[in-house]
């Protein structure tokens, strides 16, 4: 076709439909399936984010609106500061802050209950490429976590980037069976946070 040629057009007929994308997260997997099949790839799905100064109520509404159970906490894109999950919204820590600071639920901020970058667990994208769903489940159980970040190494001298997220809930959905994970406090800072 010549570069100035007009593309033929036509009028739509009654009954025309919109093509629906096949959601990637409905693909059934087995324990032997490649781990990448259950990873939320942030090059294909926009990361759900929230500012650290937003309230827990705003975080909850954002999760509901975006259909997620975890938000990346960012002050300035794309610098990651931490994560907040739906579990964090109604945790004992949140209740303790309400009582100790004499606050209402809608006054507690994301920064007060989020998991800071320093306590997050991550695995490399290179490891994901050779792992199976079974390996991911074993890792989640070993760490006592419901989420793992998948990190892609940057170019020499560049910062590493979070490329994806692995979620126990997503694995369960695609596997078609529950995955039992006993959550644990991972370090002294988390133990202190839980006691506050």
Radius of gyration: 21 Å
Elements, N to C (H/E): EEHEEHHHEEHHEEHH
**Average pLDDT reading:** 85
Strand order of the largest sheet: 1-8-7-6
> What is the highest CATH level, the class?
Alpha Beta
How many angstroms separate the termini? 69 Å
Number of helices: 8
Name of the CATH architecture: Roll
Strand composition percent? 15-25%
Low-confidence stretches: 186-196
Compute the number of structural domains: 1
Structural class: alpha/beta
Please give the largest β-sheet.
4 strands, mixed
CATH superfamily: CBS-domain
Shape: globular
- Helical percentage: 25-40%
How many strands appear in the DSSP assignment? Answer: 8
Walk me through what this model shows.
The chain has 196 residues and is of the alpha/beta class. It has one domain (29-195): CBS-domain (Roll). The chain is 31% helix and 17% strand. The chain has eight helices and eight strands, in the order ββαββαααββααββαα. The strands form two sheets. Strands 1-8-7-6 form a four-stranded mixed sheet. The protein has a four-stranded mixed sheet with strand order 2-3-4-5. Strand 3 (70-74) and strand 4 (80-85) form a beta hairpin. Residues 186-196 have low confidence and may be disordered.
Compose a concise summary of this entry.
The chain is built from eight helices and eight strands; from the N terminus they run ββαββαααββααββαα.
């Amino acid at each position: 076709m010549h570069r100035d040629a007009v593309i033929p057009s036509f009028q739509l007929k009654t009954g025309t439909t919109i093509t629906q994308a096949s959601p990637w997260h409905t693909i059934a997997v087995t324990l032997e399936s490649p781990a990448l099949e259950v990873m939320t790839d942030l090059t294909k799905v926009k990361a759900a984010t929230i500012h650290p100064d937003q309230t827990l109520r705003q975080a909850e509404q954002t999760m509901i609106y975006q259909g997620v159970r975890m938000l990346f906490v960012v002050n300035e894109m794309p610098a990651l500061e931490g994560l907040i999950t739906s579990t964090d919204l109604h945790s004992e820590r949140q209740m303790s802050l309400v009582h100790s600071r004499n606050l209402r639920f809608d006054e507690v901020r994301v920064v007060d209950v989020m998991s800071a970058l320093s306590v997050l667990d991550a695995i490399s994208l290179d490891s994901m490429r050779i792992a199976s769903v079974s390996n991911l489940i074993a890792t989640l159980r070993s760490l006592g976590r419901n989420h793992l970040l998948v990190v892609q190494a940057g170019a020499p001298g560049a910062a590493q980037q979070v490329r994806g997220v692995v979620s126990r809930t997503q694995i369960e959905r695609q596997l078609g069976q529950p995955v039992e994970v006993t959550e644990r406090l991972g370090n002294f800072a988390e133990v202190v946070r839980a006691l506050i």
